[in-house]
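Review box. Two proteins, two foldings.
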Amino acid sequence: MSFFVEFVRDPLTVGAVAASGPALATVSTAAVPRTGAPVVVELGPGTGAFTDAIQRRLAGRGTHLAVELNARFAQQLAARHPAVDVVHADAAGLAALLAQRGLRSADVVVSGLPWAAFAAGRQHDVLSAVVATLSPHGVFTTFAYVHTRWAPPARRLLQSLRSRFDEVVVSRTVWANVPPALVYYCRRPGVDGNTS
């Protein structure tokens, strides 16, 4: 099933007409440690562009939980990546998903979610779930398309990230992606997960 077909079926949950490219995947997953046994959560893996990059960085170590709302994408991803714990679920329920697996927190959360397609309440709920489950020294990464960066949903996302994390670093533009994108690296989640 093509990414475009899924976008046409449900543009508010798929949010893009094409999957992220390898260049964006490399930049978005750079926070995944190459040592130790980290707990890595991937939100909105879609067809697996970031999944492939995370698996390469983990090289058989740690835990990789991929949370996908689209049932078809989840099924395909689970078949292609048996080492990844793929769950068909809503990212807003992340705390319960981790608890079911005996995990207290995530070391890295990598997001491929379509934030620009989310209403304010949806953004709030998912970011609250991320902040509540990220370890104190954890890193949250997400991306925005350059052409939508100044649109109200994208500005709201960046403002919300800055209110919830002690540090938000913006990558250089990933021109090799179609469309060009940039990545937000968010560190040291705040104590107040309800900040909007």
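Next protein.
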Amino acid sequence: MTMPTPVSVNNSTANKQCVIVGHSIDAITTATVMVSLGNKVSLYADQQQLEHTLANYEFEHQQQALWQLYVSQNSIVISELPQQASAVFAEAQASLYWLFYSDLSVDWQQKNGEQPAWISDLNESQLSTQTPVILSGISTLGVFADLAEQCRRPWVYYVPFVFLQDGRAYPSMLSPKLWLMGEKTADSVDKVAMIQPLMAQAQNSYVSDIATIEFSRSAIMSMLATRVSFMNEWSRLADQQGVDILQVADIMGLDSRIGSSYLKAGWGFGGQTLPTEIEALHQTLQDTQVDHRLMQAVNVINDDQKELIFRKFWQYFDGAIEQKQVTVWGASYKSGSGRTSSAAIHPLLRLLWSYNITTYVYALEAQAELASLYPQQPLLKFISEPTQPLANSDALFVLSWPDTKRLPISAINEVVLPVFDAQNAFSREHIQSLVGGYQGIGRRKD
């Protein structure tokens, strides 16, 4: 692997100390990026949770290599997250504190009067009020603006990780497509010199008050989720009308008012960010008693969509599916990731197993996570080659197939196997060349 060249930084910002609190992929990525910018990092984390994250993100090869290098060089020094936040805020030499809200322990979140314990400890610490504090994470709207107000210091900021891409975490933070930053004190971004290189390399950036950035984060993610559910809803109508939804998406993308992003129909959206964001918005709406029927519909469509490919399978065999054997290609929530959070693989497997169906799964990067989630399931069989069990299978499911990998059409045709394509990974040419049946999402073989 070729190591990336660290970003050039001014001597005034290099070799400074950054204290990071967190164990998530966001925190790990931030640590590696800050060292690449020429800084030292003290990382406070729940060690068990940190190891769990690193194990689940083994597919982030560049990230893993840099992490191991920087830890071995003591550029990243890892310490167990203490029970009292005051121990962390004692690092007076730090030039920046970066806290990942969802990773803070229960002890840190407990109330001391009206404030979370970590804010009380921060306010009572000897840490200079001129030391910037950055908060990151997803929560109900207004939480981060409120936390910033409770901190008795002017330089408090909020950075949502709308730019982080699974499978490309390190490069997507080093050169973010969109950098959003909320500031407690207006026009104070220059006080956070350590992150200026990231802002300079962003394709787009926007700085505003924290409440506005929180709202924008939620609006962006909700719009992406809405586009996915919109196309999935239309895919069902396409099925009825005999129209290929992929062609429709291509045409829609030509309209500059719409664009082409997030228009691919499939099994829905998963991962951590979008479902967490939708849940946080749902909680916000409950708290504020504001009606938001659109986002409720988005969630309902998405949940139902994850079972749609199974229903197509059931209908294809007229319900006679008991004790069959199937092959499943892909398990992650998107191609290139090893994460299966909120992915269609889980409802599909549960439904198949309820009919005593043996599942041969080609899980790519997600095999380790699936194996840990279903350690005692005799109907789950992992395969190292996608075509290995096709001859003994009654059907093929495609949930996640990388765009860069050629589909083995000839191997499918050798066994005349029906294909249930939940990702819409097959092109029109692929579909027409299949000998057996094909069912996609808003697509079918004529």
